[in-house]
Amino acid sequence: MAQLTLKNLGKSFDDTDVIRDLSLDVADGELVCLLGPSGSGKSTVLRMVGGFETPNRGAILIDGEDVTRVPPEKRPTGMVFQSHALWSHMSVAGNVAFGLKLRGLPKAQILDKVQEALALVGLEGYGERRVWQLSGGQQQRVAIARALVLEPKILLLDEPFASLDQHLRERLREELRDIQRRLGITTLFVTHGQDEALALADRIVVLRSGEIEQVASPDRMYRAPQTRFVAGFIGSMNFLPCDMRGGVSDHPLFTVRAAVSDGPVELAIRPEALTLLPASGTGARVHRVTDYGTHLLVDVDLPDGGRLKAMCPPSARYETGQEVAPGASHVALFRGDAKLAEVTVERRVADHV
Amino acid sequence: MTDLASSGTRRTGGTAASNGRGLTGLLLVSAPVALLGWLIIYPIFNAIARTLLAPTETGTAFSTDTYVRFFSDGYALANLWLTLSVTAVCAALLLAICLPLALYLRFAKSRVAGVVQGLALFPMFVPSVILAYALIRTIGPNGGVDLVLNALGLPKINSPYLTPWGPIIGLVWDNIPLTTLMLVAGLGAVSDNAVEAARDAGARPLALLRHIILPQIGNAMLVVLSFTVLSIFSAFTLPYVLGPASPEMMGPFMQRTFSQVMDPRMAVTQAVITFAICAVFGAFYVRSIAKNREARR
User: Does CATH number 1.10.3720.10 belong to domain B73-296?
Assistant: First the structure.
């Protein structure tokens, strides 16, 4: 149980700034996901916390103690790698016991701790197997057990489920969440999967080009993104360019009223905030309907050449080419990267909230 | 019925196609296999047969006389022992020099690594005979080192030239590039993440080397040892130019037996004995590789 503080961290590789003035506090027992596109610097932040990269500027504090220059072998952190990084010449138990042996613990105690750690990840009885005899999911469980057995203050996970299939990924992340809650271990989790971040995190940190774009709970991150980048990066979003004139949007399909100065804006609408009603004269036509079982995803061609994605109930029926009238229940307005307003919309007419 | 019939046809077609591929594969390997048989396998059996069939007045007769002569001759045994000990010392020195070098080249992130790699590979492009004369001019009597020591008013070095240390220095220098390259290739199997995971678990450099890196490059070490033993055991130029005249290493010994003693059958016997010792190392290497593969299955 520990608190992690990153203070004005900066890191450059070959004179290119990868991390710029990044500050973050992770509370005791909290699970924070670092989320961002490739090259956003999320893995670099994790590697700096683990001691595998040294920041050029700033400080890393664990429970108030400065560990910025402390090498990984002396840090109270445990890391789980994307590639599992298991040692193939050792058995499963050997992998888990390695760190304990280095600490000179008595054999009986090592045996107990290894069995406890393997039980924690559901691998009782697998100790004598070689790591190559395990499936990808089992290997990742061994990696988690290996990190947890040393009782680190901070658990670091670098895209640990990226190489696993969808079903296994979902199952393992639920198990990891359970283990993390049970142990109450402070955790920093790097992922580029927004669904993973939304499902796991207490808080999500979205990174872009080495800077924090937004820090928020999964709920706020999805429903109230503060920048256009976050709005487009988290989940699916329709962006419709138009102009505001006298506080009213001039979009032919979405009339939005908001106290926003005149000028170009983008209306940002989630697919699930859209409804499609059969209509004529709108010029919006169904392009394609994809049935995902739980919902239909309907692509709609707009008269201005743009395209919308709408999430509709599976019972709805749409034909390709059918003319529809799209309506939105919630719209955010962006100008450039800045959010100007959020509007709850009555059908075809919106009021500023 | 129709489905069954059609699937049967497809299966037959697939077998025919895979047979075709098998035949193409056999044809592709037939040329190198034929060359191997002609240039390597045939000469081996021919040499063994020549040593075991002694010429008589009526033709040839089975005889192990050359082997008896070799193993009862103190000088020949001294030559064999010298060759074995030079090989062992060279292998140990090469591992001691090249392993740290390979570790540095594998894990160093600095630009200096490029320069070190260039320097380590340089001897590969120097012919053995040039290297031998360079060493004579450097560490031989009144060579470069002696001149420097003399200028500093210090006594001359005890020159390794024409002692067993002459070929040892030359062979080690000559074999550094290939040994380093093989070890670097072997270290490629140790992922950065595996090393980082060990450091994360608390391993310091020595523990990392002992528990993580060395066990994972066991095969590469075996390859290095086998190649070193095979190339040094049968070396000729450096032992001939830099080595002692008596006892002498097997390469110069064979050459002298053939061209000066004019005893080609004895020279072939020495070659067969040399080959047999090298083959033991080769078999050891193949067995270790096969065992590792078997374990992985």
Answer: yes
